[in-house]
Amino acid sequence: MRQKHFDSISIALAALAAVGIMGRAASSESAGAATTNRVFEIRTYTAEPGRLDALHARFRDHTTKLFEKHGMANIGYWTPADEPRSNDTLIYIVAHDSRDAAKKNWEGFINDPEWHRARDESEASGTIVNKIESVFVNPTDYSPLE
User: What count of Cα atoms within 13 Å lies in the side-chain half-sphere of residue 9?
Assistant: First the structure.
């Protein structure tokens, strides 16, 4: 189980680095860049068997817009390339202005009646998500920043 968690974080971090999307991220003062409190959150969702398409639809049609409404920046969304995890896993990264902002962003999202409607409609034929993992990450001072 621990290896699976590491694998999904590795996938997301590699994707994040590969597409160079870490602009505005915190960097070292010694590198001459301004420091910010911006944090990235890597989230891994494991869908119930046969429900990954419903999870994708919910994110595509509702969740990403609601994240933006509540101050989260959508960085990227991925599915593993190989089975068996390609059948049940969504990995994504959002950014928050700070850890305090992240807490406020999630509270706003969770309490949003629009989110409740979208969740309830998407789960009319059964639960979609089996497990959620979340890891907050900060770039290192040697990360390629834009």
Answer: 14
122 has a pLDDT exceeding 80:
yes
Residue 80 phi/psi, 5° resolution?
-60, 145
pTM of the entire predicted model: 0.77
d(CA 104, CA 79) in angstroms, rounded, equals: 27
Residue positions counted in the chain: 146
Long-range contacts of 30-35 (CB under 8 A, 24+ apart): 30/141, 31/141, 33/145
Q: What is the pLDDT of residue 8?
A: 54
Whole-number Å distance between alpha carbons of 137 and 146: 17
What confidence tier does 22 reach under pLDDT thresholds 50, 70, 90?
very low
